[in-house]
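Q: Given only this backbone (323 positions), what sequence would you predict?
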């Protein structure tokens, strides 16, 4: 909030904006994951909870979303909290009349204890945090920038299945240039020692030079590859992503490269380790064949998705000072 933007968590979540993965260190993640495991137990037993009773969170999404929007809503409601839901404000609210982001945020913070926002512009979450006087802002994706809660659930899923977050070989594939989930996850993996991330994408969708330099300087080893043949066979995690159509000006170009890399049972057979996990932030639009879904290593529609709700339950309870 205000000057507190990008404030480090340092073990204290209450009242803080959650804008970037860079606010977290390994200890903060451990605290969050401990609470996440508790939330998981609570949700699995369907135990009624009033942890967030009396709180109201505004969910304001300027970009389409069903999963993240639904996941935050479900997380808050499972803990007895309530939400004001606003989707497409550019169409249905005063934003359509030309209201600034700052005014919209000031308005909704006067009703609520926290604001979860998705916006098409990179940096919008930080602007919202500057405008807000008392409500913490949770970034639910800002353009090609970041998607911190997605990275938190991705890291939790890796931790749960692989048992560690260091000494990993990870393959990320698809839209490495525009994928905000990829950007946040690389930031997360760079908090741990000895991680190597292979980045498989068409040339046109490689990390931009600035991000490559910035991420590499954090100690994570990044290896750019352009062919399936270069996939390391010992990767513990494959993180597949869709090519981000909405970031293309020229749709013909999108059509040409949208399916450059597709996961098929055959690709898994050739290159995937026995105990790896296949992840995807979803939605998928053809880049993982549905015939791969029954493979027990495919966790995207099972564990990864539910973990999103558990991590958001834990995060909201921490930010609102209820655990
Ligand atoms: C991702 C996003 O919005 O960045 N989706 C999500 O939040 N689960 C990935 C995507 O849209 O490709």
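A: Predicted residues:
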């Amino acid at each position: 909030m205000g000057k507190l933007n990008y404030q480090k968590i340092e073990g204290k979540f209450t009242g803080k904006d959650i804008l970037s993965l860079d606010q977290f260190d390994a200890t903060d993640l451990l605290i969050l994951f401990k609470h996440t495991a508790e939330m998981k137990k609570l949700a699995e037993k369907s135990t009624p909870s009033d942890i967030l009773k009396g709180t109201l969170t505004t969910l304001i999404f300027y970009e389409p979303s069903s999963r993240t929007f639904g996941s935050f809503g479900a997380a808050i409601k499972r803990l007895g909290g309530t939400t004001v839901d606003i989707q497409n404000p550019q169409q249905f609210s005063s934003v359509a009349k030309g209201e600034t982001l700052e005014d919209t945020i000031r308005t909704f913070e006067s009703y609520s204890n926290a604001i979860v926002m998705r916006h098409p512009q990179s940096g919008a979450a930080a602007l919202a945090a500057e405008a807000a006087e008392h409500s913490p802002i949770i970034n639910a994706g800002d353009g090609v920038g970041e998607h911190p809660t997605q990275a938190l659930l991705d890291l939790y899923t890796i931790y749960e299945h692989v048992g560690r977050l260091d000494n990993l070989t990870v393959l990320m594939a698809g839209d490495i240039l525009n994928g905000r989930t990829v950007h946040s996850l690389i930031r997360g993996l760079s908090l741990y020692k000895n991680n190597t991330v292979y980045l498989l994408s068409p040339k046109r969708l490689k990390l931009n030079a600035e991000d490559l330099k910035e991420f590499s300087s954090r100690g994570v080893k990044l290896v750019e590859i352009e062919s399936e043949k270069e996939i390391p066979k010992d990767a513990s995690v494959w993180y597949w992503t869709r090519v981000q159509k909405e970031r293309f000006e020229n749709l013909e170009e999108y059509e040409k490269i949208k399916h450059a890399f597709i996961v098929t049972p055959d690709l898994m057979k050739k290159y995937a380790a026995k105990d790896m996990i296949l992840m995807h932030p979803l939605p998928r639009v053809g880049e993982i064949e549905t015939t791969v879904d029954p493979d027990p290593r495919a966790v995207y529609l099972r564990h990864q998705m539910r973990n999103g709700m558990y991590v958001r339950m834990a995060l909201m309870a921490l930010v609102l000072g209820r655990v």
